[in-house]
Amino acid sequence: MVNIRSYEESYNKAINDFIISIYVEEFGFEEHREEIEKHDNEIYKKSDGELWIALNEKNEIVGTIALLKHSDDNVELKKFYVRKDYRGQGVSKALYEKAMNMCKESGFKRIFLGTYERLETAIQFYIKRRI
């Protein structure tokens, strides 16, 4: 079972390390390592969006998802990652539902995202949910 929590500044480095472990080390986007290492995740809250982390029983980050608000109507889905050994266990669904609930509560009319062709599983996840 995982616990989903809102972003706290004390998790910033751990979140960046977690994302590097997936985006850079698992999927090979080495050219983004330095950018991710320096990323300030406070940007999501400052935009009136949010970033959530899923923690396992050892308090390790096993998933993330974020919303970056662009306007009163538009929000971007960002930082949606789940650790490989937690995929298929409902973590992505729980994180996604958390984000979608905020979108409904905040009245966003448009949710958009960008991804890469190499991330086929992610693309299928989004298509299934018709984002």
Provide the fold topology.
Layout: E1 3-6, H1 12-24, H2 33-38, H3 42-46, E2 50-55, E3 61-69, E4 74-82, H4 91-106, E5 110-112, H5 120-129
Parallel strand pairs: 4-5
Antiparallel strand pairs: 1-2, 2-3, 3-4
Structure summary:
Helices cover 38% and strands 24% of the residues.
State the main characteristics:
131 residues, alpha+beta, 5 helices, globular
Low-confidence stretches: none
The tally of beta strands, per DSSP, is 5
What is the ordering of alpha helices and beta strands? EHHHEEEHEH
Main sheet specs: 5 strands, mixed
> Roughly how many Å is the radius of gyration?
14 Å
The assigned structural class equals: alpha+beta
- Main sheet strand line-up: 1-2-3-4-5
What is the CA-CA span between the terminal residues? 26 Å
What is the number of helices? 5
Beta fraction: 15-25%
Structure description:
By secondary structure, the chain is an alpha+beta fold. The chain has helices at 12-24, 33-38, 42-46, 91-106, 120-129; strands spanning 3-6, 50-55, 61-69, 74-82, 110-112. The longest helix has 16 residues, at 91-106. It is globular.
